[in-house]
Amino acid sequence: MGLRKDFLWGGAVAANQVEGAWNVDGKGLSVADVATYKPKVDVKDYRKQVGVSSADIDAAIKATDTTDYPKRRGIDFYHRYPEDLALFNEMGFKTLRLSIAWTRIFPTGEETEPNQAGLAHYRELFAKMHDYQIEPIVTLSHYEMPLALATKYNGWADRHVIDLFVRFCQACFTAFKDDVKYWLTFNEIDSVTRHPFTSAGIIPDQTDNLLQTEYQAFHHQFVASALVTKACHEMIPGSQIGCMLTKLTDYPNSSDPRDVLASFNKNTMNYFPADVQVFGEYPALILNYFKEHDLDIEMTSEDLAILKANPVDFVSFSYYMSMVSSYDENNLTLTTGNTVVGGKNPHLPATEWGWTVDPVGLRISLLQLYDRYHKPLMIVENGMGAKDDLTADHHVHDDYRIKYFKAHFAEMIKAVDAGVDLLGYTSWAPIDLVSASTSQMSKRYGFIYVDEDDLGQGSLNRYKKDSFTWYQKVIATNGADLG
User: Fold this and answer.
1) Domain assignment of residue 299, given as a range
2) Which InterPro entries does the entry mention (predicted)?
């Protein structure tokens, strides 16, 4: 069978990791602008990688230097996007997934009118994309909510933020209704309990019961997602709006039934945010989880009606690695992964950052998601971080990256041949950017090398890696020639 003829090949970035220009054209501070470079934090200590305190926030608000706050500088995509889009076009991109920074449109989140300079920037960006016939896939919330909403309301813990987010999204729909067909509500919405500040603006030291607050924030995001889905369908006829899940595929560590149960529980908790957005209701097992953990989530009958009436059109997800679970963590060798720490599968190799490489797991994930949801799917993040060496003549020989993608694409195509309805694939990331957790540049993902180091030193020049030409051929043959 192979991939559909209109398959959306491309790449994915986030505004807070590429744009820079943190104080340009009226932009306000976001939660991402608080993230500091953490070179000495153990990669397996994820809470320390993303943790933040009230004191950290106060220091960040006063800081004006970008050295310790790499997401404030990014790779200057804000000014260099014409050059980068030209390179993406040369690779043959059909689509680019990117996000709109909330604080460029509403700097504090509470303004009643949008910032026209922010709207103008994205309008010009989308126009250039359309010049190259690159379809935008826009994430409305990608770890970059206004910092002012975190400090004033403890982020998504407060129901009031729902209305503010809906206002932001409606402003985007009004401004870009002729530019964008595909929208995503919340990036990796399941991540609220793994990094509550980054994902939901929750400040842990201002929270009495963190677990209660996290699940209340979940509910507010679910309601907001449903309201935004309704608005998108009404304001942009023919539009498609999806949810986005971190697919944390988990296997039992052994055939011991207790390990199987531990893995089932892990996967159930991973699925639940997408379950709510696809099925429009909370799963019975999750409602029982609330009861067992004494979580009193405020939800009205009107909330539940809104969820039921406004399911998403498709399911998108990130997939980087898989892990294993056991009833007894002493049975596991722990390793890191995308926003998680878990059991390392002894049958799989790992990257320099400890993320296991599991191409078959991508096929399993596609089959699981399609079997569960019966909705079209998109893979909107997949890739490997590595330390690349730039040669004296400005080349990067990244055969390891080509090997990674080749194996994953082969399994992706097998899933499609098995009957999965897959709309597209966007690699994370097509160009080097500031990594999400430790804010490094040296953890490189792209087909394009950016001359910038962890401290922001470098020319910012862009150079094609060997994988650039390889991906160009894959797209040109619609996956028929993986090299």
Assistant:
1) 8-476
2) GH, GH_1_N_CS, Glyco_hydro_1
- CA pair distance 483, 480, nearest whole angstrom: 9
Q: 135 an active-site residue? A: no
481 is a domain residue: no
Of the pLDDT bands very low, low, confident and very high (cuts 50, 70, 90), residue 414 is: very high
> Peptide bond preceding 35: is omega within 30 degrees of 0, i.e. cis?
no
Q: Which residues contact 197 (CB under 8 A, 6 or more apart)?
A: 31, 34, 50, 51, 52, 150, 155, 203, 204
Candidates 386, 390, 387; CA nearest to 465 is 390
Q: What is the pLDDT of residues 77-134, one digit of tens each?
A: 999 999 999 999 999 999 999 999 999 999 999 999 999 999 999 999 999 999 999 9
Residue 414 lies in a domain: yes
**Is 472 contained in some domain?**
yes
Contact 142, 102 (CB under 8 A): no
CA distances in angstroms from 67 to 37, 54, 72, 198, listed in the order given: 8, 20, 9, 20
List the one residue out of 22, 40, 30, 59 whose CA is nearest residue 439.
40
The active-site residue, picked from 19, 135, 144, 381, is: 381
Task: List, for residues 327-357, the tens digit of each pLDDT value.
Answer: 999 999 998 888 788 999 999 999 988 899 9
**Contact present, 433 and 17 (Cβ < 8 Å):** yes
Assigned domain for 483 exists: no
Show the tokens assigned to 436. Answer: 């999400």
Q: Which of 188, 298, 352, 411 does the annotation list as catalytic?
A: 188
Axis-axis angle for helices 399-417, 359-373 (nearest 10): 30
Instruction: Please answer whether residues 354 and 43 qualify as being in contact, where contact means their C-beta atoms are separated by less than 8 angstroms.
Output: yes
Question: Residue 394, Cβ neighbours under 10 Å: how many?
Answer: 12
Contacts (Cβ under 8 Å, ≥6 apart) of 25: 104, 115, 117, 118, 121
What is the C-alpha separation between 435 and 445, in angstroms, rounded? Answer: 9
Which residues are CB-contacts of 204 (< 8 A; sequence separation ≥ 6)? 51, 52, 53, 196, 197, 210
pLDDT digits (tens, 9 = 90+) for 119-174: 999 999 999 999 999 999 999 999 999 999 999 999 999 999 999 999 999 999 99
Are 411 and 480 a contacting pair, CB within 8 Å? no
Domain count, the chain: 1
- How far is residue 381's CA from residue 319's CA, in Å, rounded to a whole number? 6
Residue 39 vs residues 42, 438, 442: alpha-carbon distances, Å:
8, 7, 10
* 188 counts as catalytic: yes
